[in-house]
Amino acid sequence: MLGSPCLLWLLAVTFSLVPRAHPLAPEDSEEEEEDETPRSPLPVGPCDYDRCRHLQVPCKELQRASLTACLCPGLSSPDQPPAPPRLGEVRVVAEDSSAVVHWCAPSSPVHQYWLLLWEGRGAPQKSAPLNSTVRQAELKGMKAGGSYVVCVVAANAAGESRVPELGGEGPEGPGIPAFGPCGRLTVPPRPLTLIHAAVGVGAALALLSCGALLWHFYLRQRCGCPRRAQPAATF
């Protein structure tokens, strides 16, 4: 019987050393359920890329620099020549007979651009090549009062974009397709030229008027002027 108290004491010590399981609180169970619930991915939007923006950074570079994922517009294969760009606003500056040409990039890989300028039926003038971020260029040295056709050409390693056939007629040729790479522009006369022309016309009219008056007085002095008959005096 002496051993029974010792046995009971050993059992009590053993059970006291065994860790007791604590019931889960409601908050803990909710946290575990939230952790197990799959989270929906954040929506992916388009990158801040505009085909018509001047000095636009390529979209691939925007993707690499962006802190969040974004999507780029689709492009054609680099093994194919680019599609034609779309000509935008053409702003003519009459003071110096120049024009600023805007355009939008095509949905194709582009390495460089250049402009073609026709005057009449002659061969076009070609501008210097422009890098792929450029969306506007200035045309200088045009004639006041002249009519021109301007086209934007895109190029990559596979070739260059097509230019619509102008029929060899230059600015006087058939209609140019809308929303294409080409357009017509007319340079108005310079304001100083109009002023000079108005002054010249005014001076010519003044000289003609003076000449007519001098001729009139010369004829009067030479041929004389018939006198009016005086009425007879009545008594």
Helix and strand string, N-terminal first? HHEHEEEEEEEEEEH
Question: What fraction strand?
Answer: 15-25%
Strand-pairing-aware structural class: alpha+beta
Helix content: 25-40%
Number of strands: 11
Biggest sheet character: 6 strands, antiparallel
Give me the number of helical elements: 4
Radius of gyration: 44 Å
- End-to-end C-alpha gap: 192 Å
Walk me through the structure.
- By secondary structure, the protein is an alpha+beta fold.
- It is 28% helix and 22% strand.
- It has 4 helices and 11 strands, in the order ααβαββββββββββα.
- It has helices at 3-17, 26-36, 59-65, 191-223; strands at 45-46, 70-71, 86-93, 98-104, 112-118, 125-126, 130-131, 136-139, 147-156, 159-160, 182-186.
- Strands 5, 6, 7, 9, 10 and 11 form a 6-stranded antiparallel sheet that branches. Strands 3-4-8 form a 3-stranded antiparallel sheet, with no helix packed on it. A two-stranded parallel sheet has the order 1-2.
- Strand 3 (86-93) and strand 4 form a beta hairpin.
- The longest helix is centred in the C-terminal third of the chain and has 33 residues, at 191-223.
- The chain is elongated.
